[in-house]
Automatic annotation (TrEMBL):
<keyword id="KW-1133">Transmembrane helix</keyword>
<dbReference type="GO" id="GO:0055085">
    <property type="term" value="P:transmembrane transport"/>
</dbReference>
<feature type="transmembrane region" description="Helical">
    <location>
        <begin position="215"/>
        <end position="240"/>
    </location>
</feature>
<feature type="transmembrane region" description="Helical">
    <location>
        <begin position="169"/>
        <end position="194"/>
    </location>
</feature>
<protein>
    <submittedName>
        <fullName>Carbohydrate ABC transporter membrane protein 1 (CUT1 family)</fullName>
    </submittedName>
</protein>
<dbReference type="GO" id="GO:0005886">
    <property type="term" value="C:plasma membrane"/>
</dbReference>
<keyword id="KW-0813">Transport</keyword>
<keyword id="KW-0472">Membrane</keyword>
<feature type="transmembrane region" description="Helical">
    <location>
        <begin position="279"/>
        <end position="299"/>
    </location>
</feature>
<dbReference type="InterPro" id="IPR035906">
    <property type="entry name" value="MetI-like_sf"/>
</dbReference>
<comment type="similarity">
    <text>Belongs to the binding-protein-dependent transport system permease family.</text>
</comment>
<keyword id="KW-1003">Cell membrane</keyword>
<feature type="transmembrane region" description="Helical">
    <location>
        <begin position="28"/>
        <end position="50"/>
    </location>
</feature>
<feature type="domain" description="ABC transmembrane type-1">
    <location>
        <begin position="83"/>
        <end position="298"/>
    </location>
</feature>
<keyword id="KW-0812">Transmembrane</keyword>
<dbReference type="InterPro" id="IPR051393">
    <property type="entry name" value="ABC_transporter_permease"/>
</dbReference>
<dbReference type="InterPro" id="IPR000515">
    <property type="entry name" value="MetI-like"/>
</dbReference>
């Protein structure tokens, strides 16, 4: 059968109804989940975006004011600092988590002794909640009995390491805790990708005299592109909704130096009782999620479709 005949058979209108009624039980079973997603997610999102154009305060009301909430949002110094902190945290977290996670995975992939123990140790922080992680690192970075206190007790009286109380570097203190928790998860994703590489590729590289580093850079990493894309999307989604780690470590302080967009939304919706302003901020966060997901969807599905 030629390609043209195959196309005519697939376009046959008689066969389409048969394909439509295939696996009816599975399709009916998915209806509740589809309706739930449409009502809760799509409906809730549309409701939030619509109310961001109103002047809702304690309770939502349809009193439209146009783009006033967005103008107020972007004229707020607190929101600007939140966005700047998220950008700094996001870029550093993406780069360092990917580099450290892949490096640890590459080391474990060399079949070292006690691999299971090391894998458990590196992955254990991911099992903790961000609140527990934040509180633990709040103690570790405490200037009195944390790292600074320990080093000074050892004789280095001039040693200073107090990031959580320094407005200029407080976001990096939060970054340390985020890296400690998230790197192990990325390591596991990368290790799964490395274990999926055919052993014959390594044998061929050794036969050709290619070094380990060059093999990783020129052969292994390009083959793991889907793994890297998936890890990037997971990390980016976690960065955008960063909230509890900040609350546990600094609660946005000192002052507003460590504010992040998610905390801005929560504060305005539940503490300042300004729903419309919180909705406007959450809409901007939704836009940032779309900016992350659209390129990922294009890379994952657009390239396959073209192929």
């Amino acid at each position: 059968m030629t390609l043209a005949d195959t196309a005519r058979v697939s376009d046959n209108p008689v066969r389409r109804p048969k394909q439509l009624f295939r696996n009816l039980s599975a399709k009916f079973a998915s209806i509740p989940m589809i309706l739930t997603a449409l009502v809760v997610f799509v409906g809730g999102t549309a409701w939030t975006v619509a109310h961001s154009f109103t002047k809702s305060r304690l309770l939502p009301k349809w009193d439209f004011v146009g783009l006033d909430q967005y103008e107020r949002l972007w004229n707020s110094n607190r929101w600007i600092i939140s966005v700047e902190n998220l950008l700094i945290y996001g870029v550093c977290s993406l780069v360092l988590t990917m580099v450290l996670g892949f490096t640890l995975a590459a080391l474990l992939d060399r079949k070292i002794r006690f691999e299971g123990a090391f894998r458990t140790i590196f992955l254990y922080p991911f099992a903790l909640s961000f609140i527990v992680t934040g509180l633990a690192w709040q103690w570790i970075l405490n200037p009195d009995f944390g790292i600074q206190g320990v080093v000074r007790n050892m004789g280095w009286e001039s040693f200073t390491f107090d990031p959580l109380n320094d407005p200029d570097i407080v976001i990096f203190g939060i970054l340390i805790a985020g890296l400690w928790q998230g790197t192990g998860f990325v390591m596991v994703i990368m290790l799964a990708g490395l274990r999926g590489i055919d052993e014959d590729i390594w044998k061929a590289a050794r036969v050709d005299g290619i070094g380990i580093t060059k093999t990783y850079v020129r052969v292994i990493i390009p083959m793991m592109r889907p793994v890297f894309v998936t890890a990037l999307v997971i990390i980016a989604s976690g960065i955008i909704k960063l909230y509890d780690l900040v609350v546990a470590q600094t609660n946005g302080g000192p002052g507003i130096a460590s504010e992040v967009p998610a905390k801005y939304v929560i504060n305005y919706m539940f503490e300042a009782q300004n729903l419309a302003q919180g909705f406007a901020a959450s809409t901007m966060m939704l836009l940032s999620v779309i900016i992350v997901l659209v390129p990922w969807a294009y890379l994952e599905f657009g390239g396959k479709k073209r192929g």
